[in-house]
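Sequence only, no structure available. Ideas?
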Amino acid sequence: RWLRGETYDQIARRTHHSLSCVKRYIQAFARVINLHHKGLAVGEISLLLQLSTYLVHDYLTIYVQHDSPFNRQRLQEQLHRL
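Reply:
I predicted one. Tokens follow.
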């Protein structure tokens, strides 16, 4: 949803998750993609970010399925906030 342009608030309302959780999920997603682009393997990303390999795989799958110029721009904006 975030990649499609929804705000943190919109996502929190739709998913019934707290705003802080939504921000944490999106930050983790952005970090996973950033490390993937730097050439790190799933296991390395998992260890560095203390995320399960399953979640890292899920984030990478989401990224590949929704890769577009708009989404790449959203991701870059998020990485600059970290």
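Residues 8-81 form one domain.
Hope that gets you unstuck.
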